[in-house]
Design brief:
heterodimer, A: 205 residues, two-stranded antiparallel sheet, 67% helix, B: five-stranded antiparallel beta sheet, two-stranded parallel ribbon
């Protein structure tokens, strides 16, 4: 068996080569649901980053105590705790945003990205590696979410962060901020990222 | 010895320890943050009240309505006993600066599809007409049930008479009367029958419960109640309002 990836490799892989959304197709529920504006998307990305980092660190700390058949229970318990903390914090300090995101913050518990990182990396590698893996994956997730959100917000409302960027004559494509827009944008961006990857690998060979 | 080691309890000790640790942490977080979250909710309620009482048609529901700063809001609690169960309705009586009543806003909650739905119902000064409806808290299904938040749907309640209970009709089947009033009928949201019915029934129950106590006329008891509250509550609430405005 090959050596497990080092901390640095884990970090870099998460950002693009193994991007959670564009490569692993994980965590698609928030990707589709909260990307109708850049603000909710970034809040979601930060919450996921917090949960992912904390869960990865805790799981990595107790990795030698884990019983194989009970590990999923421990993962879920840990993730649920940090999600609840994140949810309460948003409700206390970003009240409007917490109302906008509604049930999607509690739904981070079932975001398969986090449980996947606990299983693949944190339950097998050191705390430092697990933390850098979490950071890399979180940045990758944040990039994916904000790229989709930026496309949808610009085309759907002509605005970015609520500030107008396209001229007034732009006919707002309302469908882009509605659910179908999420699927269209995700599909097209997914195609684009894979196409670029394909061209790159052809050039290399 | 091996027996003990293989028992379920021994295997699950980590899960149990983690559950206790995490549980304690969450209890701490909850204790620390609940006051802040409650304050947020109260602030939101106070900000919404003017919109629910003043003419909502003339202004978008998000921004403060013109004339909102001239309102004095007093709160009281109406107790209603029905079938041995006492329900408490926090009611906010809104008056203009000159003392003329502008309307009432009641906070009510009831079971929705997923969880409790909390609403603010605005009534005019006599309690005869609904002047606005706002959903404070809900956890309905995203995309279906949570469409009860949409302004277009909530606007159906505005100007409805509170004499007869509102009924939910199939989406589109009720339609508005030619003069724009929809006669006690609320279009249900397709795919969210239970959520739409819940909101309508919360509104109906609230109005039926509190209407007799809203205005100063009928029996002496609510009269006393209201005056008693006015004297003690007037200054305090007026002050609270001013503080709130400085903050915002």
């Amino acid at each position: 068996m090959a050596d497990p990836p080092t901390a640095f490799e884990r970090f870099v892989q998460g950002i693009l080569p193994e991007n959670p959304v564009y490569r692993q197709l994980l965590g698609l529920c928030p990707t589709l649901a909260v990307t109708n504006g850049l603000k909710p998307a970034l809040t979601m990305a930060c919450s996921v980053a917090f949960v992912l980092l904390c869960a990865n660190i805790v799981i990595s700390l107790i990795r030698n105590l884990l019983k194989p058949h009970l590990r999923i229970v421990v993962f879920t318990l840990t993730i649920a705790t940090f999600v609840t903390i994140a949810d309460r914090f948003l409700a206390a300090y970003l009240f409007q945003m917490s109302k906008t995101l509604g049930p999607y913050i509690p739904l981070i518990i079932v975001n398969c990205l986090i449980i996947c990182r606990c299983e693949v990396c944190a339950s097998k590698q050191s705390v430092f590696t697990a933390a850098s893996d979490a950071l890399g994956q979180a940045i990758g997730f944040g990039l994916a979410l904000s790229s989709i959100a930026a496309v949808r917000e610009i085309l759907g409302t002509g605005m970015l962060f609520g500030i107008r960027v396209l001229p007034e004559v732009w006919p707002d494509w309302v469908i882009m901020v509605l659910p179908p827009g999420a699927f269209l944008t995700l599909g097209l961006l997914l195609g684009l990222v894979n196409w670029i990857g394909l061209i790159k690998s052809r050039r290399a060979s | 010895m091996t027996n003990l080691r293989n028992s379920n309890l021994a295997q699950a000790w980590l899960v149990l320890v983690l559950a206790v640790v995490f549980g304690t942490t969450l209890a701490g977080v909850q204790m620390k943050l609940t006051p802040v979250i409650e304050a947020n909710k109260i602030r939101e309620t106070m900000e919404k009240i003017p919109n629910l009482v003043l003419d909502p048609a003339s202004s978008p529901s998000s921004s403060p309505v013109p004339g909102a700063e001239d309102l004095v809001i007093q709160s009281r609690v109406i107790e209603v006993e029905k079938n041995g169960i006492i329900t408490f309705y926090p009611v906010y009586d809104v008056q203009r600066k000159d003392g003329s009543p502008a309307g009432h806003v009641a906070k009510a909650r009831g079971q929705g599809y997923a969880d409790k739905i909390e609403v603010l119902v605005g009534l005019d000064a006599d309690g005869n007409t609904i002047t606005g409806l706002f959903i404070l808290d809900q956890k309905e299904t995203p995309g279906l049930g949570n469409r009860i938040l949409e302004k277009q749907w909530l606007d159906q309640f505005v100007d409805q008479s509170s004499d007869t209970p509102l009924v939910v009709v199939k989406s589109g089947a009720g339609g508005s009367e030619p003069d724009g009033r929809s006669d006690g009928r609320i279009d249900g949201i397709s795919g969210a029958t239970i959520s739409s019915r819940s909101v309508v029934s919360i509104v109906n129950t609230t109005i039926a419960d509190i209407r007799p106590w809203l205005v100063l006329v009928p029996s002496p008891e609510p009269l006393k109640n209201k005056f008693g509250n006015k004297e003690s509550g007037n200054k305090k609430n007026g002050k609270k309002e001013e503080i709130k405005k400085e903050e915002t």
